UniProtKB/TrEMBL annotation, chain A:
It is a multi-pass membrane protein. The chain crosses the membrane at residues 39-59, 71-89, 95-115, 174-191, 221-242, 262-281, 293-311. Gene3D superfamilies: ABC transporter involved in vitamin B12 uptake, BtuC. Keywords: Cell membrane, Membrane, Transmembrane, Transmembrane helix, Transport. Its main location: membrane. Pfam families: FecCD. Belongs to the binding-protein-dependent transport system permease family. FecCD subfamily. This is Iron chelate uptake ABC transporter family permease subunit. SUPFAM superfamilies: ABC transporter involved in vitamin B12 uptake, BtuC. It is found in: Cell membrane. The keyword Coiled coil does not apply.
From TrEMBL, chain B:
The keyword Glycoprotein does not apply. Pfam families: ABC_tran (PF00005). GO terms for molecular function: ATP binding. The keyword Membrane applies. This is ATP-binding cassette domain-containing protein. Its main location: membrane. Residues 2-236 form the ABC transporter domain. It is found in: Cell membrane.
Length: 312, 250
């Protein structure tokens, strides 16, 4: 475990160094501080999404579903659009992106609790039902978002539209400080319940028998997932299959079932994929294909593979 | 004592248990028997607070089910449910170790490790300790789950068909172990058994359920009769006595 952990840390450090230095020209001080902000944002996104996905898979008891597949990020965008629409142009001018993000995140916590708790309870153990529900919900959220975007004042439209597409190269760094505080706070809360999550992964019956009934941990986890997903969606937009790619690789490289090992490993792998991938695509290969397309493609293939395997 | 008072449980209007009242005294092995669908698993799940009570009350010593903190009850009452799927690559040692969770909350002490080692040894799992659950046979996995319930070290242990998947050697070993465990009258095992001969051989008391009602209750030689098999299980099997013990001729 130690060796694997050290290797992953070294790999991530190398990726970060490469990201910061390769192809840097001109004023190094300026370039570095500019890139360091983007780097921090990528790491935050990797951390938030990987942890959100791991704990979501733990409470739902499967390794195929992710918050993105269930429509969490689509719901975030819907709430953001609805918020921008409802407060109108004047108020919107006065509000900062930070306030908007916090408000949407808070709304997402409430909505997720109401909506996903019922979905999770009804669908537990029935994978296809949950996936179908997730697909239907995501489509519903997206159409409603599209509706709001159409009725929104064109001046306000920019902010909502920018948030609606996945973009790793053009990260919104104005939200960085707030995002860092929120995601580290949520991360700390997840870390504190890591042992309870271990027990929860034994399934509802055994965990109840061990004095840790899943419903108690479930609502806590749904709130934390909402915060983490809000952060990553605000920073880089919705990404459907990135979380699945990360957790699949994580379960592949760590034999452990303990969250104290799974969580750090997942965060490291997520960082390596994002920072390493971005360096490769943008700096080394100089490709115009966005990293998000590649990540979604591979993640999507994994999703299909896992789904087909579970059907056998 | 587990005190079950007037428990009725319905699913979609259908009564699964009807007016079940039982006093299960402390100490010994109590076997629950009955045909498939009689409500045995439902009754155990209610006692283990895995299902919410609808009517009636259940007390375990001085703790009332439904009003007791989960973590307190986890040290009083252990359950091994009938159908278990733990989808993961847990090793046997990890799984058995979870039985100590109510005590250490994720930070096992040396004593916890010792108890797990003892249990692995008792259940003949020491050689398999580092193997992952999914690489084991059904019987080996079943033993691991029982070992986990065992290290939870509760006064009351509810086991739902633990002999499923076990061969005769493992079944007899498990039943003998349970009898040793309860011999000091300290621990109580409530166990659902399908094989009435095992119930007759090892239990101190047998309770038969049919269609959600208690239809027989008493010492093995009083309960295990041809009449029971005819009326409760609806099969005309004969019962004979071998070495002063009732045996169903199958
Ligand atoms: N979730 C459920 N929905 C509908 N009926 C159920 C459910 N669970 C159990 N039952 C019914 O309750 C009865 C008792 O089940 P159970 O307690 O599992 O029986 P046993 O363990 O004695 O075989 C059965 O007739 C079964 O069909
Ligand atoms: Mg049963």
């Amino acid at each position: 475990m130690r060796v694997r952990f050290i290797l992953l840390t070294i790999a991530l450090s190398l990726c970060c160094a490469a990201y910061l230095s390769i192809g840097a020209r001109g004023d190094w001080g300026f370039v570095l501080s500019f890139r360091a902000q983007k780097l921090a944002a990528l790491l935050l996104v990797g951390f938030s999404l990987s942890w959100a996905t791991v704990v979501f898979q733990t409470i739902t008891g499967n390794r195929i579903l992710t918050p993105s597949i269930m429509g969490f990020d689509a719901l975030y965008l819907l709430l953001l659009s609805a918020l921008v629409w409802s407060i109108g142009a004047q108020a919107y001018q006065a509000l900062s992106a930070q306030v908007l993000m916090t408000a949407s995140a808070a709304l997402l916590c409430g909505a997720a609790l109401i909506l996903f708790k019922t979905v999770l309870r009804a669908g537990r153990g029935n994978l296809m039902q949950m996936i179908l529900t997730g697909v239907v919900l995501s489509v519903l959220f997206r159409s409603l978002t599209a509706y709001f975007q159409r009725v929104i004042d064109p001046n306000e439209y920019a902010v909502v539209q920018a948030a609606s597409f996945a973009r790793f190269s053009n990260v919104d760094t104005s939200l960085l400080l707030l995002a860092a505080v929120l995601s580290l706070g949520a991360g700390l809360a997840v870390w504190r319940i890591r042992h309870r999550l271990d027990v929860t992964s034994l399934g509802p019956v055994l965990s109840a028998s061990l004095g840790e009934p899943p419903r108690r941990v479930q609502w806590q986890v749904l709130i934390l997932i909402s915060v983490l997903v809000s952060i990553s969606t605000a920073l880089v937009g919705p990404v459907a299959f990135f979380g699945l790619l990360v957790t699949s690789l994580t379960y592949l490289v760590t034999p452990s079932c303990r969250h104290s090992e799974i969580l750090p490993t997942a965060a490291l792998i997520a960082g390596i994929i994002l920072v390493g991938g971005q360096t490769l695509m943008e700096r080394v290969l100089d490709l115009s294909t966005p990293l998000s397309v590649v990540v979604e493609f591979i993640g999507g293939l994994i999703f299909l593979f896992l789904l087909l395997r579970s059907l056998r | 004592m587990i005190d079950i008072q007037d428990v009725t449980y319905k699913i979609a209007g259908q009564p699964i248990l009807q007016d079940v009242s039982l006093q299960l005294d402390k100490g010994g092995i109590i076997a629950l028997i009955g045909p498939n669908g009689a409500g045995k698993s439902t009754l155990l799940s209610l006692v283990a607070r895995l299902l919410p009570l609808q009517t009636g009350t259940i007390r375990v010593d001085d703790l009332q089910i439904g009003q007791t903190v989960d973590t307190v009850l986890a040290k009083k009452l252990g359950i091994l449910p009938q159908e278990l799927t733990v989808a993961s690559r847990l090793t046997i040692r990890d799984l058995v170790g979870f039985g100590r969770y109510p005590y250490h909350k994720g930070r096992p002490s040396a004593d916890d490790h010792d108890r797990v080692d003892t249990a692995l040894h008792l259940f003949d799992l020491s050689d398999l300790a580092e193997r992952q659950l999914e690489t084991l046979s059904g019987g080996q996995r079943q033993r691991a789950f029982v070992a986990m319930a065992y290290v939870q070290d509760t006064d009351y242990l509810l086991l739902d068909e633990p002999l499923n998947n076990l061969d005769i050697a493992a079944s007899r070993a498990l039943m003998t172990l349970l009898r040793d465990l309860t011999a000091g009258r300290k621990r109580t095992v409530v166990i659902v058994l399908h094989d009435i001969n095992y119930a007759a051989a090892y239990a101190d008391r047998i309770i038969a359920l049919k269609a959600g009602r208690v239809v027989a209750d008493g010492a093995p030689d009083a309960v295990v009769t041809a009449a029971l098999l005819r009326d409760v299980f609806e099969t005309p099997a004969n019962v004979t006595t071998v070495a002063r013990r009732q045996v169903v001729l199958v």
